[in-house]
Amino acid sequence: MTRLRVYDDTKALFHLPDGVIYLDGNSLGALPLGVAERVSRVITAEWGNELIRAWNTAGWYAQPRHVGDRIARLIGAEAGSVMVGDTLSLKVYQALAAALDMNSSRKVVLSDTGNFPTDLYMAEGLIATLGRGHQLRLVAPEEVEAALSEEIAVLYITEVDYRTGRRHDMAKLTAKAHALGIVTVWDLAHSAGALPVDLAGCGVDFAAGCTYKYINAGPGAPAFLYVAPRHADNARAALSGWMGHAKPFAFELGYAAAGGVERMRVGTPPVLAMAALEASLDIWDRVDIKEVRARSLALGDLLIAEVERRCPSLKLVTPRAHERRGSQVSFAFEGGYAAVQAVIARGLIGDFRAPDIMRFGITPLYIGENEIVRAAEIIEDVIAGEVWQRPEYQVVNAVT
Amino acid sequence: MTRLRVYDDTKALFHLPDGVIYLDGNSLGALPLGVAERVSRVITAEWGNELIRAWNTAGWYAQPRHVGDRIARLIGAEAGSVMVGDTLSLKVYQALAAALDMNSSRKVVLSDTGNFPTDLYMAEGLIATLGRGHQLRLVAPEEVEAALSEEIAVLYITEVDYRTGRRHDMAKLTAKAHALGIVTVWDLAHSAGALPVDLAGCGVDFAAGCTYKYINAGPGAPAFLYVAPRHADNARAALSGWMGHAKPFAFELGYAAAGGVERMRVGTPPVLAMAALEASLDIWDRVDIKEVRARSLALGDLLIAEVERRCPSLKLVTPRAHERRGSQVSFAFEGGYAAVQAVIARGLIGDFRAPDIMRFGITPLYIGENEIVRAAEIIEDVIAGEVWQRPEYQVVNAVT
């Protein structure tokens, strides 16, 4: 398998519309050219011709595990430790349920106010269902380390903050958590495909992530769940569906969990979405995530320098230190919502996150220096020219 | 919108491989011809060109509700009462969690041994998570009515038995359940698209179903959840993801459920799979489910008569009475596993369900009398000719 050079070889493997600079691949990755053909083949040749037989003949049944192994390589996970399916909300739920079960004498889930809200909402729902007096404790991101104590059952955080791009120190926090008897659940939504992750090296217990952001597998693409091999045969599957049964096709009346991470499967896997994910991984299999990271940091530095030089009213909220940031650059600006609408109207797609964050994702597979400089020019036009104050950019859309 | 005649107009709208008689549409429906183009358009024109903007411009965000309304018509549900997403395992879990919450002073979930195992497994998992002493009580299907009592919290059953095709009387059981203060959860896996369902008329509380069987939306297509409008603003969302939040894009730290069935959304919807479902519904929008049902019963009668005449060793396990059966015909046969392998090798695709059931699904949109008679001939060849006893048909595959 020939190695692909990041950007130089990979940009041509994506469809990007003319006249658009896309700095929102941290929300929905761009379309790999191989996706349409792959999905079409699965529809026509597998579903159409093989019909039900394709569960065996086309390998649909084993696909969530095989695709999991391809993702494992990107996140430093052991082979056989990653299962694909469902959505990230459901995967963090499964992880948290198993983690709380492992540490049942403690009642506090520690998270931070920079976690993505769905993680917090799912935890609230789980805590209510458990009805055993658990508490979801939120602290500021910079206070997480100090808040670790022997009272905490589970450390439940997202490595990279979806708004600011601030990155937690996974190795350090996991080690301190373990020293205090805390089980760890890491959300990799803004890590997988963005930067090297070393789950095995850090000794992480559980992790989950999505594939529609940096991995470029398409809107609503399936999520993944990592369970450390040392836990996989014992972790309780709270969402105990038939695909995670030890013998799904024996149709027994009683549940018996499959061995390993297989038990974290729930229902029938989304075969068409999985095909798109496989096509996106065809690119990831051939790039070096360390090269992606080096380019991401250089491009991020360039964007920061260009925007700060041109727009002093934008306040950088992403850490400057390389080791403390993910693969996005965010600025706080009071008129942020309107400014994002205005830059989008000029062909620069970024996004807005409440209350005042203008967010720009760096995806080196298809974004290079020219795009970054052009993005800074557009931001300058909108901010310095006060374009953002025009009435048409104040209208709030349903979804941003 | 011109009405389509079942089979006469609809058969040409499906891809069916040459030389195959497909009586397994109750497991995975055949491919509607419109799917490949629709999915391809969503990939290229929406994801590819619109990128993140498509959540608004292509209507992705509102799609689970709009598609739910198209399914509502097939199952006698009120507009705005059906939400699409996730898998059937997860949707019955959400329904059962909400139902138990509504009836929290009672602790017994009543189901039957004919329920599909994943429903039972998910209930086991929920009961363990709840940890409040709930009990899953299983009775034989014919004993369900007598087992209803004021001790039961939730009646949790599948209308049509996946093995035998036996159908419960939804109106009668729901009425008796309600008279005893029991909340009802109906699984429509083998009902939706197979026969007319009248959720509103029966006063059902919760229902869920899948779309990859009779609805023909493809492998791993999304499921749906019905919540009676009288409950929708109060039902607890146990899987409280951000898409079911009252204001998902406010990114608040605390959960607040959306009004109505919207709260039963969990994570990001599977847009590519939803496109396939929409293409399959383009056919369903134009057929009369009552005509589908009339044809299904006639074809089922024909298959029963032809097989019984040719193969006296096969014992019919599907009820003969029309009102007591779904849209499949099943026979018990000691060598059932091998016999199914042998008929498949001769071009008749049916399936096997443990311990001894040969199962043939009737899908009148693309199956007619000729296919039924030809199927009976193949079954006769295999059974009367003792072809099923050949060694090559005894080998057990991973998935059947």
TrEMBL record, chains A, B:
Catalyzes the cleavage of L-kynurenine (L-Kyn) and L-3-hydroxykynurenine (L-3OHKyn) into anthranilic acid (AA) and 3-hydroxyanthranilic acid (3-OHAA), respectively. It comes from Bradyrhizobium rifense. Pathway: Cofactor biosynthesis; NAD(+) biosynthesis; quinolinate from L-kynurenine: step 2/3; Amino-acid degradation; L-kynurenine degradation; L-alanine and anthranilate from L-kynurenine: step 1/1. Its EC number is 3.7.1.3. GO terms for biological process: anthranilate metabolic process; L-kynurenine catabolic process; L-tryptophan catabolic process to kynurenine; NAD+ biosynthetic process; quinolinate biosynthetic process. It catalyses: 3-hydroxy-L-kynurenine + H2O = 3-hydroxyanthranilate + L-alanine + H(+); L-kynurenine + H2O = anthranilate + L-alanine + H(+). Homodimer. GO terms for cellular component: cytoplasm. This is Kynureninase. The lineage of its organism: Bacteria, Pseudomonadati, Pseudomonadota, Alphaproteobacteria, Hyphomicrobiales. HAMAP family: Kynureninase (MF_01970). Belongs to the kynureninase family. The modification N6-(pyridoxal phosphate)lysine is found at K213. InterPro entries: Kynureninase, PyrdxlP-dep_Trfase, PyrdxlP-dep_Trfase_major, PyrdxlP-dep_Trfase_small. GO terms for molecular function: kynureninase activity; pyridoxal phosphate binding. SUPFAM superfamilies: PLP-dependent transferases (SSF53383). Keywords: Hydrolase, Pyridine nucleotide biosynthesis, Pyridoxal phosphate. Its cofactor is pyridoxal 5'-phosphate.
